[in-house]
Amino acid sequence: MPATRATTVQQRQGMAHLADQGMSYQAVADQASVSFWTARKWIRQARRDGLAALVTTFGRPATGPMSGFDPLVRYVALRLKRQHRTWGAAYVVKKMDERPSLKGKKLPSPTVVWRYWRSFGDRLFPKRRPAQPKRPPAGVAHGVWQMDAKESVPVDGVGVVTFNQARDEFGRATVMHRIHPAEQPEQRIVKLTTAHVQQDCRIAFTQWGLPDAIQTDQASIFVDDDPTPFPTQLTLWWVGLGIEHRLVSSPLHNGCIERGHRTLNERTLVEQRFEDADALQGQVDADWYELNAECPSRATGCNGQPPLVAHPELLVPRRPYRPEWELDLFDLKRVDDYLANRTWIRKVSAVGQVSLGSQHYGLGRAWAGQTVSISFDPEHRQFVFTHVKPKSKRGRHQPELPPVRLDAKGLSVEEITGLPAALEDLPVRQLLLPLSMCYPQPALQGV
């Protein structure tokens, strides 16, 4: 009886073995439960080109990165990658070398295997977000701050700590250096929250003023995981303060702060023990002040001088900030204009709900399973949900649903800023630091 699905390599090898024992094509077909023509095809192919010819490689041209290798080698390289998507080329070559079926066969280099995989395009490699274009470097002090967190670092005497840091891209001074220790002794991972980052920023803004832009990676706290991401609360907060949020796709574009993490480790943490978290924060503050104001720097533009000596304009805030001024500095119209220039595509749930950011909007069961385009009406502060009508199928007609307008959620000044409750948690000692920065230390006098 003819088979209803493709034969496997093992079946083909079994048919060739039975034919070598003298069985006829029909007898082999009956035993393998395949058609006479299928049995004859693979038996002939094995006799003509050997058992390696029983491997079928679909979709590959006669030439390519691995065209000169045995078909079985190509088959195993592809199969291992499909079974283990996270394995790299070097490890796959190692596993191929351990396979008895490939003993004595020439194996490709990891580079050739990687090129072979890439020839299959999106069938092997999922689509990535498009790389962000590299922005022009900041030309002024406090033009761009590079921000990043060094997560879950074990510190002797304190426990697991996440360090949240930012450096001025132009002046190379570290403008933020806050620690976040684990709340429980057994805790091994410390993730920053939106409230953590806002409070860290408020301390840095008070000392240095507001920057023009803050540049971060694409961690979930900064951008949600959606092809058309809705801006996070942090992004909207920065926008309301007149700060551009820049996203980079690679740590290479945030090299300034990545180097700062290394400096923190070498200067403050290696082979050191601290009494508690307060002692660690105090030492971090002292070390970064010394590096900013007293120690010669090899960073670009510093010419061997400390950053604050090479760039004394860093000490003068271009846009002064105090936490108690924030409600006056925050402009909700900036947020509305920012949202009005964007559109989001979402799938409606089975119960007629749509998720946008961290909020849920009910459109009704008539919308269940539909796709909607969402825009923001700044005049009425509403989201407009428009039906994205799919391409009609022959013989089927799907009515178009009228747009739905719903009041925006989570976009008030209080919800975006977290004020005034957040002001109660700010450490007073840290907010007094700018007073000392306004008066040059001896190392800075005469600049």
Task: Please write the string of helix (H) and strand (E) elements.
Answer: HHHHHHEEEHEHEHHHHHEEEEEEHHH
Percent of residues in helices: 25-40%
Taking Cα atoms only, what radius of gyration do you get, to the nearest Å? 31 Å
User: What summary fits the major beta sheet?
Assistant: 5 strands, mixed
The best one-word shape is extended
Kindly state the number of beta strands.
11
Number of DSSP helical runs: 16
Average pLDDT score: 86
3D structure, described in words:
This protein is an alpha+beta fold and 447 residues long. It has helices at residues 9-20, 25-32, 36-49, 71-83, 89-97, 110-118, 194-208, 233-240, 255-269, 277-293, 307-310, 326-329, 332-340, 413-417, 428-431, 433-437; strands spanning 144-155, 159-168, 174-181, 213-216, 244-247, 344-347, 353-356, 359-362, 371-377, 382-387, 404-407. The strands form 3 sheets. A 5-stranded mixed beta sheet has the order 3-2-1-4-5. Strand 2 and strand 3 form a beta hairpin. Helix 4 (71-83) crosses helix 5 and helix 5 crosses helix 6. The longest helix has 17 residues, at 277-293. The protein starts with 8 loop residues before the first helix and ends in a 10-residue tail after the last helix.
